[in-house]
Amino acid sequence: MAIDTDQAIESPGVLLTGASSQIGVFVIPRLVRAGFRVVAVSRKGKPEAFPSLEQVRWLTMPGALDAAKECRFMLSAGPLELALEILKSCGQFEKAVVFSSSSVETKQRSGNRAERSQIQGMLTLEAKLGTLSENNGSPLVIFRPTLIYGCGMDTNISRLANWINRFGFMPVNGRAAGLRQPVHADDLAKVAIKAICCSDDLPRVLNVSGGETLSYSDMVGRIFEALGKPARLLRLPQSLFIFLVNFANIIKPAAGINSEMVRRQRFDLVFEDSQARQLLDYNPRRFAPVARDFSLPEFD
Q1: What value, to the nearest 5°, has the Cα angle with vertex 28 and ends 13 and 30?
Q2: 73: part of which helix (H) or strand (E)?
Q3: What is d(CA 217, CA 211) in angstroms, rounded to the nearest whole number?
Q4: Helix, strand, or coil here: 273?
Q5: How far apart, in whole angstroms, are the C-alpha atoms of residue 39 and residue 70?
Q6: String of b and e for 226-260 (b: at least 16 CB within 10 Å)?
């Protein structure tokens, strides 16, 4: 079912949480072009880099609950806890679209206790959102995207790019043949608005993957290419790589990588997203990043 989200419509309000997040960066201009008024919620208010748009009102959380009463829809690109808090207080939305993560399917049995705890918390929040939606009769769609990139704010693709820029090489776990499906944040912004505009019933949970499946090694190689650098992958035995990571975390705790991340480079993290493609005409781009995908986009 094709939906033209750039077509102007009557100006209903959308409460957007996580407005300054990597998805929010792309969803705001798309919402404006589609004719929506946007109540943009961010913990620190409007970032300086963002333009001032007449159709967009920036608020911090204390004022968001009152402003939510003016909105027909909610789009959550921020924490699930905040989405739940708003839905509890403002159950009048005609539809709520919430971003979670495909990690809830891949990290439940992680050997890292912190990861397991985080994922269990996310699953609990998803379940509470679902129960609340059923109780108040407000349609809910939860998107579970794969690896997000597109504006330098993610902690996966952009972290790899930062390492490559700094050191000129990338250590990987052997062949690092585990499959990945990186997805651009702008493609997620587009499908989120399609979900809001769609009058058909949609599944409660939809996976949204990138437009290409490739190995972890090939994904890293594409990042080198985007940065205009020769691909230099240092292929380490898993045991050595994990030892070095554990040692690094002793020297500098919370260094941003753990042994489970190393192990997962050998595992396929692939998700079926045919429902989103069929129901919402979801057609994400292939993973062909360019240098501008690692910094904030310029605003018109």
Answers
A1: 95
A2: strand 73-76
A3: 17
A4: coil
A5: 9
A6: bbeeeeebeebeeeebbeebeeeeeeeeeeebbbb
In the chain, what are the domain boundaries?
Answer: 13-294
Question: How many helices (H) does the chain have, and how many strands (E)?
Answer: 11, 13
**Residue of 1 and 137 predicted with greater confidence:** 137
Cα 285 from Cα 183, distance rounded (Å): 8
> What DSSP string runs through 159-199?
HHHHHHHHHS-EEEETT---EE--EEHHHHHHHHHHHHH--
Residue 123 phi/psi, 5° resolution?
A: -65, -40
β-sheet bridge partners, residue 37: 13
- List alpha helices for 43-184, DSSP H: 61-68, 80-89, 103-106, 113-136, 157-167
CB 103 within 8 A of CB 61: no
Distance separating alpha carbons of residues 240 and 110, to the nearest angstrom: 20
Q: Kindly report the CATH number that applies to the domain delimited by 13-294.
A: 3.40.50.720
For residue 90, the tally of other CB atoms under 10 A from its CB is: 20
Per residue in 55-67, pLDDT (tens digit) is 999 988 777 888 8
Q: Is 220 helix (H, G, I), strand (E, B) or coil?
A: helix
How many of the other CB atoms lie within 10 Å of CB of 288? 12
Q: Are 14 and 37 in contact (CB under 8 A)?
A: yes
What confidence tens digit (pLDDT) does each residue in 189-233 have? 999 999 999 998 999 999 999 999 999 999 999 999 999 999 999
Query: Across the strands, what pairs with 236?
Result: 173
Q: How many residues can be counted in the chain? A: 300
End-to-end CA, the chain? 29
- Show Cβ contacts of residue 298 under 8 Å, excluding neighbours closer than 6 positions: none
**Cα distance between residue 45 and residue 47, in whole Å:** 6
